Amino acid sequence: MHILLLILKIIGGLLLFLLLLLILILLIVLLVPVRYRFSGEKKEEGLPRARAEVSWLMSLVCFQGAYGPEGLTYGLWVAWKKLLDSGGDQERAEDQEDLDFPDDFLEEEKDSDQSPDHDGGPPADQTGPGTGPEQSQAPDQVAEDSQNQADQTAAVSGDQADQTEDRKEDDSGPQASSQDQPSAEEDSSGDQEASAGEDSSGDQEAPAGESISGEDQAPDQDIIDKISTKLDAILDKLQEKKEFLDDKLKFGEELLNTFPLDVYLPIIQATLYKLLNHVRPRSIKGQGCYGFEDPYTTGTVTSYTAMLYPFYAGSLDLTPDFTRKILTGDLEGEGRIRLGYLLWILIWLLLKKEVRFAICYVLKLRKKPRQPSGQDRKAKAQE
User: Fold this and answer.
1) What pLDDT was estimated at residue 370?
2) Residue 161 lies inside a defined structural domain of this protein
3) What does the CA dihedral 372, 375, 381, 383 come to, rounded to 10 degrees?
4) Could you report the per-residue pLDDT of 12-26, keeping only the tens digit for each?
5) Are strands 71-78 and 283-291 parallel, antiparallel or unpaired?
6) How would you classify the pairing of strands 34-42 and 49-56?
7) Exposure of 298 by Cβ count < 10 A (0-12 exposed, 13-18 middle, 19+ buried)?
8) Does 207 map to a domain?
């Protein structure tokens, strides 16, 4: 009996230890905040830089991200072990391609460099042997001889052409009278054929015109049919959209009647205020200088920032510049988010009778059968 009680005591102690361990883990998860830090910098020249870090439980779980000229980099660490890495720390080596010229090209370049033209010497036809005055006169004599021969051949060809023309005129004299009669007959026959052709073509134009008009009417009818089908499709789409908007308006009116704004609007405002007040950065510091090309735009932005001054007074220092276009500055801040506080807001909402009624109403809507749309009703009507 004593041994059994001892075993039960040990088992009870282990269960109590496990229960306490679970409670401790739950309290750590709910009460230990998730901390975040962020920083940014923008200089007058170059790209902006930004960095963010989210950590939990003394950086046991940590996520970091950065953006800069090298791009976006991020990483995840759990218990000082890297689980996720964007590879931003690795340097990308740029491949440089060497231009390799073939050996033939290099040999040609060497030959061209060693040629006398590149050495600055005179051309070969001027530096060769035998460039005296006697040889310089030989081309002139050859040119004169060739000119004389060309003149003689031109004169002989002109004489021959005159003789052939005289012979043709003598031969064509007796044949002119005999050719006049056939030509007259051909003219008369040609006139008769032309008149007959015009009469026949005039007779055939009427039915051809009628057939062409019939062919033109067919494409016109096709175009009218296409336009009518397109108009019908457009009207159907407009009708469907009208029905869709009518359904949405009816649903909105039903929601407004079911959930009056004077009851639910204060709940929404209180919830948003609590969330934003908890999530906002606890400390933020920064300074900046801004300016636009148009001083009027700079003044407009300054008026808007002045309205928000009570929210960032003592944290941000914003300086407008009306003389040039500029945007510089730096910003850093940090904050925390507790999961236990978010859970407490959720429990506070669930304790509201109006919220519970809204949740039940939404669940009923999900179970409610969907009403047929315009296309469904049209398909049923066709069936």
Assistant:
1) 58
2) no
3) -100
4) 999 999 999 999 999
5) unpaired
6) antiparallel
7) buried
8) no
The size of the chain, in residues, is 383
CA neighbours closer than 13 Å in the CB half-sphere of residue 323: 1
Judging by beta carbons within 10 Å of its beta carbon (0-12, 13-18, 19+), is residue 64 exposed, middle or buried? middle
Domains of the chain: total: 2
Tokens representing residue 45 in the block: 């020249």
Q: Distance between CA atoms of 267 and 378, rounded to whole angstroms?
A: 43
Segments of the chain scoring below 70 in pLDDT: 87-219, 368-383
- Report pLDDT digits (tens) over 90-142: 333 333 334 444 445 444 444 544 444 444 444 444 444 444 444 444 445 54
Residue 297 burial (CB count, 10 A) = 13
Q: Is residue 194 part of a domain?
A: no
User: Would you give the DSSP letter of residue 330?
Assistant: E
pLDDT at 381: 60
Cα separation, 281 vs 311, in Å, equals 12
Rounded to two decimals, the pTM is: 0.54
pLDDT of residue 23: 95
Beta-strand relationship, 283-291 and 81-85:
unpaired
DSSP run (H or E) holding 297: helix 295-307
∠ Cα 43 298 288 (to 5°): 30
List, in sequence order, every residue forming a beta bridge with 364; answer none if it has no partner: none
Residue 268 is predicted with a pLDDT of 92
Nearest to 302, CA basis, from 287, 319, 277: 319
Residue by residue, DSSP assigns 56-67 as ETTTTEEEEEEE
Token pair of 329, please? 């500055």
| Domain encompassing residue 306 | 275-332+339-349
